[in-house]
Write a structure and sequence with these properties.
Largest sheet: none
Number of helices: 4
Number of strands: 0
Helix content: 55-70%
Distance between the termini: 40 Å
Shape: globular
Strand content: under 5%
Length: 127
Amino acid sequence: MKDVGGSISLPPPADLPDPTPRTVMDETWTTIERLCAWLDDESPVQGRTGRLLRILEVGEAYGEVAASVHGLMGADPRKGKTHTIDDVCAALCEVIVTSMVALASISGDASEVFAARLREGARRFPG
């Protein structure tokens, strides 16, 4: 069918998936929610205290990043180079996942809290 502007508009084929497919971030937050649910069920420290303790895991994960960077640079003369850039990247990913779990553990809507902070951060950069 033709519209007034002259371009052709066709209805979407019936076999196509939902026109608003899930994004990678949607899938990521779903995975984070599953991790939180598992921790809620399995953690020996339950309730609010258990969820707050997850924040401390971020510090532990950061320690792994620091150790990886030291190992990458060979900063400890006794050990020399012990890590690769891939090790640093893996440790950084652990910080991100651990932070997301901590956020989801204490926030009513972690994905929206994160998106709002990202938008706020982006507004501070020119261009």
